[in-house]
## 1
Amino acid sequence: MNGLNTGPRIACEKKTVEQMIQIACRGKHGTREELCASCEQLLSYAQTRLSYCRFGENKTTCGACPIHCYKPDKRTEIRAVMRYAGPRMLFHHPFTLLQHTLHGIRSRKK
């Protein structure tokens, strides 16, 4: 798929990654209301990559994706964020965590 992805699946993924980056930034960098500059940059990068995901609304979770569209340094950063924020999502955003987990399970079965 070429062009900008604006469907509900991509919007959900964007929301999830934003929530995870917020949790990690608050926990690791001590921010409260706004993200620090490096986390803001990572969020912008991740959302841009999602907007242009070649799978569009048929995308799997990024962890199950056969194509790694992040640059190696950004991939390392987002992995660290997900490793930190993933378990904490249960307390901060349980519904989002449930949706993300179920989507991951469904997309691996296809």
## 2
Amino acid sequence: MQHEKINYLEFPASDLSQVKAFFNAVFAFEFTDYGPEYTAFNNAGIDGGFYLSDNAMTVAKGSALVVFYSANLAETQDKITAAGGKVVVETFEFPGGKRFHFSDPCGNEFAVWSDK
């Protein structure tokens, strides 16, 4: 562990089994359940968890945006939609790459970017 560095992230989810299935199918997250209202994930680049909540995080509500990297943006987008996610901001270019935003099945907003 690194002193005074981000160590763990937690996100809301209204359906833990649905969010676990989604992130496992798309990003190969692995999960450990800690009771019926919390599940921890690893194999994500940083460890974290989902807690049971009717809230969802979105940029419009002022949430921080968690951004994934992909070597193949189109392939990752296809995996997201096949697993029940929705594209909420279409792919756009910016200096250094391009990205799109998506929501998971519980309505949390994330983004995926690529430098290719």
## 3
Amino acid sequence: MANIQGATAPFASLLPMLMGDSDDARLDETLDQVRQGMADNHSGGGVPALDVMVRDFQVYHEVMMVLAPVMAVAFLALAVYAWRRFARTAREDRRTRRVFAAFGIAALLVTVAALVVAVANTTTVVDPAPSLAALFDGGWSFRSVNGRLPGTAQR
């Protein structure tokens, strides 16, 4: 799924690589300009470069919004198959029953995870700018470099 997502929106898939510790002053200055531009106009509207970034970020999440439910259905089918095999296996064959039970449970857990991913990506697609701003304001950990939550004022 990540390969398809990265091929469809390569720019957005590389954005997390920009975050982190850097010794490049020009990169830091550019990231500060992006942060300021996103803060000034949360949708990025009016600044062509930010508009492109927001749109590509949206496409990146649209791809996962479509792929995650497909994967959920596939893993749900796998869970049903595993549970049917579990039910048909003789009680004396404990090892085989445990394997099918484990596969069934694992497939159900992956199904739930895929549905959570689908919902999260759908909410990002509806309004991508705040998520992109959060990425630039601190990355995936929801903490910025200085330890505060994105979008909160320093006290």
